[in-house]
Amino acid sequence: MNNDNHQTLPQQLEDYEKLLDVLQTIGSSLEVEAVLRQIIEAALSLCNAQQGAIMLFDPASHEIAKTLVRQNQAEGELLDHYLNTLLSGWALEHKAPQMTGDLAATFGAKQIKAKYQAITSALSVPLEWRGEIIGVINLLSLETNQKFGERELRLMKILASQCAQFITNAKLHEEVFAEADRLRQEIRDKYQFHGIIGHSPKMQALFALLERVIPTEGRVLLEGESGTGKELI
Question: Could you tell me the pTM of the whole model?
């Protein structure tokens, strides 16, 4: 992982071109799950990280609402729920990114399990939208010669700043479609009574009467000529 001071201009240009391609791909998705998957996969690729996760928070309670983890199975699960929560909690409290090569020094030795000693570097970047932290991206490097540096921090800050809006847009899109589905179902329930379709005032009056009578044990006498559909009622 290269420090910005060691990057040539062509290397920096290549980084920005990759980032632009990633943002265009993510921005075209309208499903939250797909957006999250693309974000974490892009973060892993851009930063050459071995394990990564993205956590979303409930805006009202700041409780964890969703977590998506990506890791190399051969390395074992180091970015588990405990470490994810620890890293995200810091970013949520300070509303700032954090990059560390020594978890014990950053959080205290008692907070860090023995298995985390295999972690070379950790990077956490908050997803901020209109002053609120809606989530955090956590990345781990397990390679001894690949610690996160200013390059990775810079790229992740750009990625996070854009992706916070993508996530918000996708959530809004899903909410709008869910509400549209609810309204369509409500209309079907209102105008279609057990397979009987009718929009006229008389049919709506009949449906209203049926809704009152069905829950009771009352008996209803239907009168009418044969073939008029009494058996459907």
Answer: 0.73
